[in-house]
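Researcher: Next sequence.
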Amino acid sequence: MTYARLIVNPAAGAGKTARHWPEISSLLKQIGMKFEHDITEAPGHAIELVKSAVGKGYKLIVSVGGDGTINEVVNGLYITGGLNDVAMGIIGTGTGGDYIRTIGVPRDYVRACERLMHPSELTVDLGMVEYGKDKKRLFANFGGLGFDAEIVRATTIKYKSLGGLPAYLMGMLTTLVSYHNPEMSLELDGVKEARKVCTIINCIGKYGGGSMFVAPNADPADGFFDVVIIGDITKPDLLYSFPRIYKGTHLTHPKITVKRVKQVKVTCKNGLALQADGELLGQSPAVFTVLPSALKLLV
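Model: Next structure:
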C-alpha cells in the first residue's frame, strides 16, 4: 500500500465526519494503512492541502468527506498536474454519497477503509466547466445550470444545516415558487438550438441531489456526458413528476431528453446559476467538456 495523505473534511455530513474521524483513523491504523492526514478548515481548503500533498510527493490522496470534498480533491490534483500520476481513494462520510454509489465505494466507512487495503483500480472521466472570465472548475459527478443550480443556491444559503434530502427538498420548494424557465441557446457537440429549458444536468455519474437516479445509463468511463435536459415543463407537472427521479423513470417524460455528448455550451440573456458536484460556482455562459480517462481511483 502506497503511503497516503488523507484530506479530512470535518464539516461533511453535517458534522458526521468530525464525530467519526477518530474511529476511522484508529481503524486504518489497525488494518495497517500508512498515512498522514490534514483537516480542512474552510471551503476551498482541501484544494490547497492537496496541492501541498502532491508537492511533497504523495502518490495516493484519500478524500474523507462528501461529494464536495471529492470535488476539491479532484481540483487540487488538476491544478498541480497530479491527475497524471497520483491515485485517489475515497472514504465517504458525507450526506448524499451520490458519487461513491456510482463507482462502487462502500457507503459504510468501515468497509471503505478495509477496501482501501485491497483495492481495485478504476480509471474514470471528469468534467470541466469554463465560465466567467477565465474561470474553470472540474467535477467528478455532475455539473448543471438552471433550476437544478438554483436549488443548490437556495439549499446552500438557507437550508444546508438540515442536511441531505430535507435540505434539498426545502431548496427545491423555495426555488419552485420563483423560478421561470428561461430561453437558452444550446450547442451540443456543435449542434445548435434555442429553446426554453427548465434545467440541464451534465452527468458523469448516475446519482445526484442525495440518491436521485438522475442518469440511469451514465457510465463514468465512456468518455461522454449523459446530458439530462428538462424542457419547458410546467411547475405542477414538475412537482407531480419529481418523485419519478428516484426510480429513474423520469426519462420517459415527454419534456425530458438525454443526449450523449462530449461538450455542451450554454448561453442565456440573463445569467443562470451554475453548479458542479452540488457546489455553487457562478453564472452562465458556460462550456462543459468531458475529460476522458482523467482520474485514477482506488475502489
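Model: Helices lie at 16-30, 45-55, 67-80, 98-103, 109-117, 147-159, 164-178, 235-241. DSSP finds eight helices and 16 strands in the chain.
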